[in-house]
Specification:
The structure is a homodimer of 527-residue chains. By secondary structure, chain A is α/β, with parallel strands linked by helices. The first copy, chain A, has 3 domains: 6-92 and 307-495, Rossmann fold; 109-292, Glucose-6-phosphate isomerase like protein, domain 1 (Rossmann fold, 3-Layer(aba) Sandwich); 498-527, no CATH class. Chain A is 42% helix and 12% strand. Chain A has 18 helices and 15 strands. In chain A, the strands form 4 sheets. A 6-stranded mixed β-sheet of chain A has the order 1-2-15-12-10-11, sandwiched between helices. The mean pLDDT of chain A is 97.
């Protein structure tokens, strides 16, 4: 395989010479309808309002070939060691299906990984059904009606965002729902609030930590056990109310303090773990395994679409290439994610981790510093809320911020009212359309304060309605986009060495600061 | 008054020539303890880990004088028309007290504004007490136990963030709490979810819209009224369950559909309205007027501190000047806000509006384009959650992102457990300290992938505990910082013309797109 830095490729040099397409004057109906790529799961990616034309796309094709995007993706799903720093395979795609045919086998840790993930899925199906139908009860005989996930980072942000994103759909379906809550922060106020009015007898806790050594998660596990024991409820056995999601070799896996354990492994990074047991246990308990299975099917469909070699048929690859053009040719350092769906309220927070932790790197996959921008800052809030908040800067600030809109024709809960001649959903979609065009085309005005310069670029991911398949495809689209960008920038998107130093120093602070003058000064100040 | 663009000042030219202070090698204990300024309300601002030394501060003093920061702040609180585009006074400081002495009077709209805000406060006190003690009941005779605020932007983000930020304190005090919820988005899924399990008979709705014409808010008011009427509850009268917060001249003020109305005016911008009736009604209902009064007292204290002419005694001004150095000399286009307190989970979302809507402008206060960066992108999530998410990029990404840490010695709820020899709160603070030092000092390593370059700049706002006064000071500190930055950049921080075009086009979309080809193409696609 050929691993080159972005600016070492011929195609990037050619790309850097191209003039941005003038969206402002050329956003025609024909352009909009042609700039569409199916992204799987019923989702379509539209890049009509992005500053690229055929000449860019020709160069994208060359860049994709030079950086061997499809070859590297294929190597990754074939089980090659793509996480080179940690010498690990990268197998999150396999948690939602085999992309290279059912015959394909990947061996590691003395087991076949497809079978391993499949076995865990079957165990999740059986366990979640038993809890939901009351065969497995709490230790005092009550049915389980609530689940609390204890985890941080990838064990929290993805599962939490997905739980919120699926709720309205399941309510509308009249699915039985076990309400889920999440404890993540080591701040004692976090578990204190969640436990405040909790009925321990009907609650199941899910402790999620791959290593079984995450400080926040173990601390919060202890916090919960102490709170449970302090209640002195007759017959209540804490261990019967806790399951673990962890690796087979972690201390949690063999703990006598848990009712059961579901397994992940070193080949599923935290931020890519929503389709593994990390997301699977909580979502299957909350909404039933069928919903989770449909979500996985959507993700698998998007993964298949991302295997298309032609960039004009590969939404994730196109999104990735456009992002590199914006970041490295137009030098735009941040990106806003703007879902026009209240159900996706925490999805931008998940993408923040996915993108910024994967590609926020200053060295290439061989540990050599790169001299170009890598992962951008990602932020966002749902529309129309954001319109009344930070859109002022997006429209009229001094910097251009590329925008990623997400929208749906139908509402998720299908409940609506008509006011002033239109439903709320119609108003929501009208605002989405209005914003895309306002950003792209701007408006001239003799008063400069009322002027909109236009050429503020955006893309749109849209579907008929936010259903489990759509959500799976949405998640996988972004995972694959981030993966392709890592290949383009020649990074290892699958480690996170940047989180280590803080852990080391936090332990040093807890030990009094040792000989570190700055640590000791702050300890004196904050105690 | 002298209104110059930033780069037209002598002091800025001098500032641009200064070398950044090398935090990495010079973060001494003495520097840390001396770089502290009281910000009011028990809050302290520390800039030890920012790249400035005495030479920068000398230039800051000159820049503050050239741009007449204190004179402009004084003019603003004296009732001059500082919102020049809309020809309006800017009076949010007055909602929390008189800064120029009790004798000072400000007349507008035929009334004295200090008396007007005071009268509204007295009405809020009486009304909230009557609801909380059961003198005012729901229309079917039930006590009110829940409040739902319907508003968007400044009528939502600030009040919501503050409600969450005060909850733990009030729980710990054993205050009676009327639970509050918030409906903001025009997405019908938002009201549908909030209304799902609501007991209308014991709920009071607060409709918040200064103009009384906000599309989202009026739509959601209708949504709620229709849902209430659809229940066909005997004796239930929707109008008896709704109060308005609006201006005296708005259609809402005289509506027969509300139980009562509390007033604001044109001199309180949405993003500055948390200390007016916009935040006052909901917070006083939820936690009692005394808590809200203490919150106002903290904000007033911070406002007084911001009047100090000496930058070494003025935390908001120092924060503003450092921000301009980072933005316009070091060219750093975004800033992360990182509160080490779960109670502040939505505070960054409020700051996003406050800062990005105020200073995300490309023209100066006279409507002339500026040729320097103005308001940065603001984003953030609570620590330690963020550490397991986007901190990878903050530590090892290719761009430097300035950081604003917020922390407290004690937890808010004062409930904790000890594990591995330390409480959760100790671990939280240890992580905060560790991060400041890790970002500032970095770590050398022979493996570049494990290397931290350091000189990633941060400030810290800290207090003993997050109490109502602290929160008020925190809010006002940022408002005053943003105000000073607006003066430095020569902007009008108090209008938001950038939100207008989207509103116009959304109506055009609802009317079918008229002759706009791009709008019509998107309408066809999304229907």
């Amino acid at each position: 395989m050929n691993y080159s830095n972005l600016n070492g490729t011929k195609a990037f040099k050619a790309l850097a010479k191209l003039t941005p397409f003038d969206v402002k004057s050329k956003l025609t109906a024909s352009r909009i309808s042609h700039a569409a790529i199916s992204a799987g799961g019923g989702l379509t990616y539209n890049y009509g309002a992005m500053p690229i034309d055929d000449s860019h796309i020709e160069t994208f094709v060359e860049l994709a070939q030079e950086q061997q995007l499809i070859e590297k993706y294929t190597a990754l799903i074939s089980g090659e060691i793509m996480n080179i720093g940690e010498q690990r395979l990268v197998l999150h795609h396999l948690t939602r299906g085999k992309l290279l045919g059912n015959h394909q086998l990947i061996y590691a840790d003395g087991e076949e990984k497809g079978a391993f993930y499949h076995e865990q899925l079957a165990r999740i199906e059986a366990f979640s059904a038993a809890v939901r139908n009351g065969k497995i009860k709490g230790s005092t005989g009550k049915n389980i009606t609530k689940v609390v996930q204890i985890g941080i980072g990838g064990s929290d942000l993805g599962p939490r965002a997905l739980y919120l994103a699926l709720k309205g759909y399941c309510v509308e379906l009249s699915t039985d729902i076990l309400e889920a809550r999440f404890i993540s922060n080591v701040d004692p106020d976090d578990p204190t609030e969640i436990l405040e009015d909790l009925d321990f007898e009907s609650t199941l806790f899910i402790i999620v930590s791959k290593s079984g050594t995450t400080q926040e998660t173990l601390t919060n596990q202890e916090f919960v056990i102490k709170a449970m024991n302090a209640k002195q409820i007759k017959g209540l056995v804490a261990a019967k109310h806790i399951v673990a999601v962890t690796s087979k070799t972690s201390p949690l896996a063999s703990s006598s303090n848990v009712l059961d354990a579901f397994f992940i492994d070193d080949y599923i990074g935290g931020r890519y773990s929503s389709t593994s047991a990390v997301g699977g246990v909580v979502l299957s308990l909350a909404y039933g395994f069928d919903i989770f299975k449909r979500f996985l099917a959507g993700a698998h469909d998007a993964d298949l679409h991302a295997l298309q070699p032609d960039v004009l048929n590969n939404a994730a690859m196109m999104d990735a290439l456009i992002g590199v053009y914006l970041r490295n040719v137009l030098h735009l350092p941040s990106t806003a994610v703007l879902p026009y769906s209240q159900a996706l309220s925490r999805f931008p927070a998940h993408l923040q981790q996915l993108d910024m932790e994967s590609n926020g790197k200053q060295v290439n996959r061989f540990g050599k510093p790169v001299d170009y921008g890598t992962g951008p800052v990602i932020f966002g809030e749902p529309g129309t809320n954001g319109q009344h908040s930070f859109y002022q800067l997006l429209h009229q600030g001094t910097d251009t911020i590329p925008l990623q809109f997400i929208g749906f024709i139908k509402s998720q809960r299908l409940n609506d009212v008509e006011t002033d001649g239109s439903t709320s959903q119609k108003k929501l979609v009208a605002n989405l359309i209005a914003q895309i065009v306002a950003f792209a085309c701007g408006r001239d005005h003799e008063n400069a304060n009322k002027r909109f310069l236009g050429n503020r670029y955006s893309s749109l991911l849209w579907a008929n309605r936010l259903e489990p398949e759509t959500l799976g495809a949405l998640l996988a689209h972004y995972e694959n986009k981030v993966m392709f960008q890592g290949f383009l920038w020649n990074l290892n998107s699958f480690d996170q060495e940047g989180v280590q130093l803080g852990k080391v120093l936090a332990n040093k602070v807890l030990a009094g600061g040792e000989s570190d003058e700055a640590l000791k000064a702050f300890i004196r100040m904050l105690s």
